[in-house]
Records
---
Amino acid sequence: MIEKLALIGIGLIGSSIARAARREGLVQTIAIATRRQATLDEAKALGLGDIYTLDAGEAVEGADLVILCSPVGTYEAVARQIAPHLKPGAIVSDVGSVKGHVLTAVGPHLPEGVDFVPAHPMAGTEYSGPAAGFASLFENRWCILTPPEGASEAAIEKVTAFWKGLGSDVEIMDAEHHDLVVAIVSHVPHLIAYNIVGTADDLETVTKSEVIKFSAGGFRDFTRIAASDPVMWRDVFLTNRDAVLEMLGRFLEDLSVLQRAVRVGDGEALEALFTRTRDIRRSIIEAGQETAAPDFGRPHGDGK
Ligand code: NAP
């Protein structure tokens, strides 16, 4: 049980934490700080917390656990702002999608006696803002903790227990490895989706209305990812540059091999790859990370 939880930023992730922590009885008081009055009013109307303020420093006063839930690019400024107001023994954590950058953006600004345990819940949707959150977002999803060297075991245990309480499975790894893993499972796929949707939008020979009309051919599944929050994703690519470039290099090499197979009509190579990739999807379903329902579980008229 945490007496006071402070959430800095109350969008999709922050509001989902607030809802789940309340539902599971993990916290007594929730203080919410955000940048704009309109967002604060929305959070208040949704009843997400107990204390509402535009001043992050005020929100963290007396808090046992502080979680940064704003875009990664804001972290350094937020850390500087909250540092003088943190109580000794407080734990500072975050939910940022990039972890190496967080160590340098936040860690050095925190005072002695405050523990820092960065976290990344591997869960999300393409929607943003306080109303987009829901209490079950983290259930059966992984949350990766990347405690810096020398972090207190008690603080790591407390953050682990908190995320388990929200329904997540927890894994611990170093920040550099985390950034490589998410570059291939999340960041490069987003870049590919943003790119293919942009390319289709720029086409002259195929009209935009045709792209939209015939999107069920595969394109629409990329558009879900490409609808993700522009500011959050801008910050991801600005702060995880090295790992993204490493994985993008591998991707481009493999794409050239595929391009050649298409050009020379190497059906055997194409079929071998497509068979291998189908197995990956089956493994994801078996691991409980995706529904086995056809067409991503979209409802169809005949109930199938
Ligand atoms: P979101 O829905 O766009 O919400 C962002 C929140 O941050 C808003 O409440 C916004 O406030 C606030 N904010 C922005 N600048 C701020 C500042 N300078 N000080 C205080 N608050 C500020 O974003 P989200 O999807 O919840 O993402 C938040 C974090 O979660 C990001 O770091 C992201 O990397 C991470 N994450 C996201 C996902 C995902 O799928 N979305 C998954 C895992 C982790 P205003 O509305 O008042 O401007």
---
Amino acid sequence: MAHFFSDKAIENFKTVQTPFYYYNTELLKKTLQVATSEAKKYDYHIHYAVKANANQQILSIIREAGVGADCVSGGEIQAALKAGFSAEKIVFAGVGKADWEINLGLDENIFCFNAESIPELEVINELAAKKSKTAQIALRINPEVDAHTHHHITTGTKENKFGINLDQLDGVLNKLQTLASLKLIGIHFHIGSQLLETEPFFMLCKRTLEIQEQLAKRGISLENINFGGGLGIDYNDPDNHLIPDFKTYFEIFHKHFPVKSGQQVHFEPGRSIVGQCGALISKVLYVKEGSFKKFAVLDAGFTELIRPALYDAYHKIENLTSDEAEETYDVVGPICESSDCFGKALTLNKAHRGDIFALRSAGAYGEIMASQYNCRKLPEAYFI
Ligand code: LLP
């Protein structure tokens, strides 16, 4: 693939109001092609995690690749339907589903509700009964696998709000037997996000086999196993790893989780599908000389990309319009908060007012997490 930004794209950037999101749809399509062909080797099913990026054009491209959608709100279900995803390819997760959202899922006959607690099961059962429907349920289980990732995006350990803990599973299954409008079709996990090691996925396979055995003792056979998402991307060196290693990822599961006949295995990748195809494009408003350092003050702030402020996340920053000798800058935004900083002591080609900066690997959890704090406008999106 040519450089992520063509010369023509950079020329165009100069004429457009910044900040905005730029998506390389060619890369998105290639990524989808690799992900789906690697999954197909083992007959695995992919549901794209809509939370990573719900831009309609992005969703349409993803839907064309033939994958399903993993949604965590009624709004995401609506966005997925609008982009043409069929309801039987939609799964609905989330620890706090509101009644209207459950009703929407029931009315649309979505594939499955990933449920996380007894009170939630009771409500889904009651709402399904009112409609004389049966809701398909997968239990989200907390497998107690440590994902070794940022504590804000770790989800598979006992102390966080997600999932049914292993010691509570029997109680939930007992309850489930009494809920006539629910049908258990599988189990669901998601241990965390931005995982770059294989060991947590290996542990997840091991734990899943144990759980499967425990359920088999109760006469429950599982038609669907959903391993969630989590595969990480290379934020440090995006150009050398534009497409994540889906091959190794799916191989781990193939090697360590033998699929039973009639069983379907599902995955919910978000970041690994859309992360590298997007960049936040911004202009330098001012180069400000501090007492002992220089600041490049951008017109984008944490309102457009909150990951650095929220998780200390690193996004590679490039000055697309300067090839002058490198200097050291703190790259900051215009928002009235000290946390509005994209990176400290970064080495960049000498910056001037008007230079165009790209914040790379921002396709996932970028545009979708934008806010209007300081009465700012939500960013536009442009596509190659
Ligand atoms: N499935 C479930 C149930 C999830 O909770 C998530 C992400 C995914 C799938 C997709 O995970 P992925 O493949 O993208 O890792 N805003 C944070 C990430 C939050 C992830 C929440 N759950 C960030 O910017 O890093």
